[in-house]
Amino acid sequence: MQVKDLASSAQKWSTRANGASTDYGNGVKNTSADQAGLAAASAGVWAQAVAEAAASGRFAKNVLSAGTAKWKAGVAALGVSRYGTGVAGASGKYSAGVQPYFSTLSGLSLPARQVNGNNAARSQAVVSALMATKASL
Asked: What is the reported pLDDT for 72?
C-alpha cells in the first residue's frame, strides 16, 4: 500500500484542520442534536472506557509516554497565550458556579471561636455546609 510521507501528511492535516474552523463553528451553530442529552446518555460507555483504560494500564502508559516535557511544551506554545482569553470568556460561568457556595457561606453561622487549636467545630461547620450545597446541586 502506498502511503504519503509523514511530513506531507502532517502538513496537509494541519492546513486543512486550521482552515476548517468556520465549518466547525457552523456545524455547532446549525445542529439540531441535543449535545448535552446525547453526552449524558453515554455516561455508562464513558465510565466503562475510563475504567478499562485504567485497569489495562493504558491511561498511565500514555501519560508517561507523553511525559512532563510534552505537557510543559504545550503550555508554553499554546496554553499561556490562550489562558487569559479562556478565563475572561468564562467569568459568567465562574460566577454562576460559585454563587451557591458564596450564598451558603454568607448565610452560615459559625460556632464561637475557641482557644487556638480548638476550632475544629468551625471548620467542620464550613465543610458540612459546603458539602450539603454540593449535594443539592
From this structure: 97
